[in-house]
Amino acid sequence: MQLRHKIAALSILPLLLAVAVVCALVIVQNQRLGEQQAQLIEASILASKQAELKHYVEMATSIIAPLYDSGLDDEETKQKVLAALSRFSFGSDGYFFVYDQNGRNLMHPRQPELVGQNLWDMTDPNGLPVIQALMQSARSGQGFQRYTWQKPSSGQFAAKLAYVVMLDRWGWMLGTGLYLEDVDQAILKVHEEVSGGIHTTMLAITGVALVAVLLVFASGLTLNVSERRLADRKLQALTQRIVSLQEEERSRVSRELHDGISQLLVSIKFQFELASHQLVSGNPKALETLDLGTERLAGAIGEVRRISHDLHPSLLDTLGLSAAVGQLVAEFEQRSGLKMLYSNDLSGGDPEDSVAVALFRVLQEALTNIERHAAARSVRISLEGDDASVRLRVRDDGVGFNPRQLDNIGGGGIGLRNIRERVEHFGGRFSLLSAAGGTELDVTLPARAG
């Protein structure tokens, strides 16, 4: 996967994740609100039905009150009470029922086949012993009981709420009930409305998410084009800089070869030719001339070694970073006349070759900047490290500068930019503090390149 695709994915995936979380929260919250609304509606309807049932039972007891309160307990009076109750009905499925304390049905106007049967152990489809539960509610005075009963008008089982009271003198249980289909329908309607609301909300969120994804994609595409153009310009500038640096380095090496080694070799050639003529002519100064030529040859060899050391210090390969830095510090002190204080503590051993070369080049750049710009009298260098990292600190007592104006430093601040780029390449840390009275460069690189 290309980098721009990864960036686009990293931009869109969190958005989609956030949308998914919002959708989940909306669904959970809507369902919770739906359940609460359904419970409120159910409670409200049940309260209304309870009041209605209580009212019906009070009407029934008031109708039979003259007979029941007469004090007569004969069979004829009881039959008159049952007949009066059987004629009292409401709605298509509203009726009264009477059971004795043993669970025997005494009256059921809508299901006469139950009259006379002992239904004490009868259970509804949910396993509830209906008559026992009704009798317990009547005796406790609570009166209300929910159960499932066969609806006379349809023959189907449906949820029912009953209210029962005891006629204690006769040991009868009198009650009536209302079927709760309207409660189920109201709750079903609430659930349907909640589902519809969730569906509508999901569509709205999906639409918003789609628009957002398109905007992110369009913004990413625009940014990608802009960044690519900027990257191309930076790459061109970097390429040009590399070419310029290569040309500068070639020019420097060319100058040193021409102005140093070439002149020395020409001088040596003349000395050896002069010594040859002197030997032929028997001049006693021939040996002195030959010694001078040999001395200049040694100087040429030293110059070649110096140029080779500048291109790549051989001590890095043979004795390691601390020795190479020590030689560089000694040569810089001899050349510049500055007082050099060098300490090293590489307790973890020398770092990886590429890291050692990077630190060496950083120190070269730092010393070159000090020599050209700092007007310092002394330089303190410390090199320390362990198995994980290596730290190089370079501090001078020069005039200092403003680190924020690197681009205005002589030479365009190329040396400091080179240091920063080397550090960033290895994922290290770079710190530069400068003020009147001194500058401190602090570089930390991992001991092993990742």
**Model regions low in confidence, pLDDT < 50 over at least 5 residues:** none
Q: What is the alpha-carbon Rg in Å?
A: 52 Å
Give the percentage of residues in beta strands. 15-25%
Q: What is the ordering of alpha helices and beta strands?
A: HHEEHEEEHHHHEHEEHEE
Give the helix tally: 9
Percent of residues in helices? 55-70%
Q: Determine the CATH superfamily of the largest domain.
A: PAS domain
Q: Any idea what the shape is? A: rod-shaped
Mean pLDDT: 82
Distance between the termini: 21 Å
Structural class: alpha+beta
Give me some keywords for this one.
alpha+beta; Beta-Lactamase; five-stranded antiparallel sheet; five-stranded mixed sheet
Structure description:
The chain has 450 residues and is of the alpha+beta class. It has 2 domains: 3-185, PAS domain (Beta-Lactamase, 2-Layer Sandwich); 313-446, Histidine kinase-like ATPase, C-terminal domain (Heat Shock Protein 90, 2-Layer Sandwich). It contains 9 helices and 10 strands. The protein has helices at 3-68, 75-87, 130-140, 181-281, 286-311, 314-318, 321-336, 353-374, 414-425; strands at residues 96-100, 105-107, 144-150, 157-167, 172-179, 339-346, 378-385, 389-396, 429-435, 438-446. The protein has a 5-stranded antiparallel beta sheet. Strands 6-7-8-10-9 form a 5-stranded mixed beta sheet, with helices on one face. Strand 1 and strand 2 (105-107) form a beta hairpin. The radius of gyration is 52 Å and the shape is rod-shaped. It starts with a helix and ends with a strand.
